[in-house]
Amino acid sequence: MAGRLRHVASQIMAGNGVVSRSGASSLRLRSGMGLPVGKHIVPDKPLPINDELVWDNGTPFPEPCIDRIADTVGKYEALGWLCGGLGFFATLGLMATLNDKASKIPYTPKVFPYDNLRVELGGEP
Question: Which of 17, 28, 69, 81 is deepest in the core (most CB within 10 A)?
Fold first, then answer.
């Protein structure tokens, strides 16, 4: 079945299938560029402890995957920054709720002729 489909596809792509074969070979070889991060080396001995925490892309200086910010910011300082930020946004939301003009006037004020119908609604003439 697969051979029949390949034959039909080769007939559609080109008379003798040259286009399909050359396209398949170039895609298979990634156009000669290789892998994006260099050659993949299969380990033949056990990996060191915490090897997944180091980004080694073949340069002379491998980088740690986790930044070293954990040593400079303490637990309670981070908690203070988090509470301060959340408190700021809670205060901002509360002020927006208190100053909401749409909830104070839920309708559009109508403008009537003759001084807004002052006399017709019982005002002084």
Answer: 17
